[in-house]
User: Fold this.
Amino acid sequence: MHTNFTSDMKKDHLVLVPSMLPIHFKFLKPVFEMNGYHLEVLETDNDNIRQEGLAHVHNDMCYPALLVIGQMIDALKSGKYDLNHVALAITQTGGGCRASNYLSLLRKALEQEGWDYIPVISANMSGLEKDSGIDFTLPLILRVVYGALYGDALMWLKNQVQPYEVHPGDTERVIDEIVDELIGTFETGEYRKSKRIYNIMIDRIKKVERTQEKKIRVGIVGEIYMKYSPLGNQHLEDYLMQEGFEPVLSGVMDFALYSIENGIIDYNYYHMHAKTHYLYQLAKDIIMRMQKTFRDAVKADGTFTPPDDFSEVIANGKSVINPGVKMGEGWLLTSEVVSLVKSGVDNVIMCQPFGCLPNHIVAKGMTKKIKEEYPQVNIAPIDYDPSASKVNQENRIRLMMANARLNEQAKQEKNQ
Assistant:
């Protein structure tokens, strides 16, 4: 019999959260602590995580599930935590995706170890678990949304500075300083002054000394965990930078907008959510206005390339894929590839867990169609799973890099 997390547990239970977004998750711990929860983001990265995942989750299951559960079991076995006062938090997207099974897989793994008394929290917006035990008050939701927006902004700026930094480590140091200062604003309510905060971010990050060389930009798209998690994608962003490229990743709030847009599509296509569909439109308008504040700040400053407007991302995919395709990353993944190509990023890595049917269809399955419309695009789909060797993955990426360099050389010769 599994144990539910209850609100009275928050005072003496430590909630463990699996890693995914290195910058964004720096905001999670303090934001939840302000609401009375004790949180720790697991930043472990070792082979034992994969072994524990394989020991507790069938190897045909979704690779992110295997890694997330492996990371949690590895943490519980480390001896660092009081198992009578620990809880595990997991996100679930719901829908026709094996991520809907994360929770039952985690509970099964805990039972296997005799730990079914450890409470599990499901963070989801799809009603998969009615009683998560987390009291999502308006102040908490607001702080989480702003934390995600600021994480997106810092990630976007970091990827345009770190590949060019003269003194290695400068970018990370400045970002850590900005995060530390920002955390204080979540206490005072100043965090809502986003225009001022974005200007400070841009101002501080552009002071990092960097070279003037021009590097080839490589877009990263894919299943949400594989796209962002260094544990999942073998530190792909760092690898691209080491090899002399500039990674380009859209923010996680685009995924939130994708989920909201799917609610609007459900209403337009099937007349679902008839009584609440206006709330989807309201949420979409609010988040897009929040994103626009950052985009406008980047444009006004002129140092960096601004991110795409999400309404353009929606429009960009429509010539290639129907918006009704919304399993997994659905139309978003294809739309992101088209948006990257239209913004001058012709090289794209698609990260997907091997056997993820929705993502194989909207990634590999759409590659031919994308190439018909944009012949210059250089796409490398990379499968990640417990048996895939890092060497094989890197060889595929190296092939994409070699093509990228040849294409760039041909472009320069043509322009001479």
Summary: The first strand starts at residue 14 and ends at 18. Residues 390-415 form the longest helix (26 residues). Strands lie at 14-18, 38-42, 86-91, 120-123, 216-222, 245-248, 347-353, 378-384.
